[in-house]
Amino acid sequence: MVWEAPAGAPVELCFEAIDLLGLDQAACSSVLEDLAKKLRPIPPLEFKSFSDCSYLTCKALGVQVRLVSGKADVVFLYNENVEGFSQFRGTLPEGLEWTHESKDVILMLGEPSDKYGGGRFRAVGISYETLGLDIQFKESSWEDQKNPIAFISVFQRLDPSHGLCELCGKHASFRCGLCKNKRYCSSDCQKKDWLRHQKECSGYLEKPSLKCDDLLPRCQQASKLVTHKVILDAMD
Ligand SMILES: [Zn+2]
Ligand SMILES: [Zn+2]
Predict the structure, then answer these.
(1) What ipTM score was computed for the predicted complex, to two decimals?
(2) What is the pLDDT of residues 184-210, one digit of tens each?
(3) What tens digit of pLDDT does each residue of 132-146 get?
(4) Could you tell me the distance, in angstroms and rounded to a whole number, from the CA of residue 67 to the centre of ligand 1?
(5) Which ligand sits closest to the CA of 207?
(6) Protein residues within 5 Å, CB atom, of ion ligand 2
(7) Domains, the chain, ranges and CATH?
(8) Whose CB among 17, 33, 36, 183 lies 3.0–4.6 Å from 172's, allowing a Cys bridge?
(9) Closest ligand to Cα 233
(10) Confidence class of residue 5 from pLDDT cuts 50, 70 and 90?
(11) How far is the CA of 125 from the centre of ligand 1 (A)?
(12) Which long-range contacts (CB under 8 A, 24 or more apart) does 86-90 make?
């Protein structure tokens, strides 16, 4: 089935995926129905419910919305010939275009905050959590610079000052156990940041005794090895 705009005009979808986030199923359906009416024949919307989430899909529009607890939390925008979708023909976020390949995306958006997939069978993807974007590519090799985009996931942007590692910008699941303030993805990053952070860490500055006891035991040794005891709290 090929859906086209009436009289063959290119379909322009005036629609920002981010605007759907947080809307309930009825509101999302009504936005997608309005868009679908621009195509002939008017394509159907499909709704599928699973135990933990549900999906509202219009393959002809190249759009799928995931709802969790009844609210849209991710909007997927598809490229042509991916899982039976037509190419989404509205404006893509951050100036992206379907002709962009993996190297173009990195050039435009910089180093991603996370990477996933890879290996023999899993296509690779990259995350920009502060932009609220995941970009899933079609092929599974990280070496592939010309990897075409399969689909783009749009979700709520992470506030850049919250939830990301102080040092590397990845998603942070831990925080400094002394000040409970600075966040880190790993003890590795916390260690690397410690010489800088100790000058501002309120928990450390208030308890200088920690210097000799808990925090930096090995700094006292002649070896001068900087192997600080890491104090990380998991965040709940
Ligand atoms: Zn980190
Ligand atoms: Zn601290």
Answers:
(1) 0.85
(2) 888 889 989 999 998 898 888 877 665
(3) 999 999 999 999 999
(4) 30
(5) 2
(6) 176, 178-179, 201
(7) 6-155 (2.60.460), 174-234 (no CATH)
(8) 183
(9) 2
(10) low
(11) 19
(12) 86/3, 86/59, 86/60, 86/61, 86/62, 87/62, 88/13, 88/61, 88/62, 88/63, 89/10, 89/11, 89/12, 89/13, 89/61, 89/62, 90/12, 90/13, 90/14, 90/15, 90/17
Average of per-residue pLDDT across 123-140: 94
- Nearest CA to 150 out of 136, 132, 170 is that of 136
Ligand 1 centre distance from Cα of residue 68 (Å): 29
Please list, in sequence order, all residues whose beta carbon lies within 8 angstroms of the beta carbon of residue 64, skipping any fewer than 6 positions away.
55, 56, 57, 58, 75, 76, 78, 85
- Reading the block at residue 180, the tokens are 């409970």
115-138 b/e with 16+ CB inside 10 Å = b? eeeeeeeebbbbbbbbbbbbbbbb
Q: Output the pLDDT for position 139.
A: 95
Distance 48 CA to ligand 1 centre (A): 37
* 70 CA to centre of ligand 1 in angstroms: 33
71 alpha carbon – ligand 1 mean position (Å): 31
pLDDT band, very low/low/confident/very high, at 235 (cuts 50, 70, 90)? low
